[in-house]
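[agent] plan:
  1. take the single chain provided in the ticket
  2. run structure prediction with default settings
  3. attach structure tokens to the ticket
  4. add a short note for the reviewer (M.T.)
[agent] executing step 1
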Amino acid sequence: MRIPGSTLVAMVLLAMTVAAFADTTAVPAAGSSEQFLAKALQASMVEVELGKLAQKNAQSTGVNALGERMQRDHARIVKVLSGLSRSKGMTVPTSLDSGQLAQIESLGTKTGADFDTAYVELMVRKHEEAMVLYTAVAEGSDPELSQVAKLALPTLREDQRLAGSYEKLNADSDVQAVAARR
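[agent] step 2 finished; step 3 output follows
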């Protein structure tokens, strides 16, 4: 079967577009302990910083408390993952990359209800990504990583559940505000 040139070009462009927009949080290849540890450490380091920011910029005491919880939970995860990285002879990331810093700075420009909404939405999304990453490692072949992932997953699930409940509260209050204006 012969494919016309324009169709072939379109297929190649589509494939390139899909590849360009592929999820950068994809699960690392099997046996890539260092990739998982680096990605998980960086993600939790971001969560710690965002939690601090929530305690400073949140309007709602609930979102402030959520930020405090995220900071505490992810600081513990950073401690465990850093120790595991060192025990495996791996280099432990100590700083955030420019994209992560930009994300924190961008959120830091918001305050009050705008901050609360943006922070909670970000927490839901980041925890969904983290659970995919940790679930794959929990089912992996490295027993140490698997154990750490299995221990972290309940905390990640609860953090996401809490963030999701605040997200729903924000959505409900947005609906109520619109209804009150009518």
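[agent] step 4 note for reviewer: Confidence is low (pLDDT under 50) at residues 1-31, 174-182.
[agent] ticket updated
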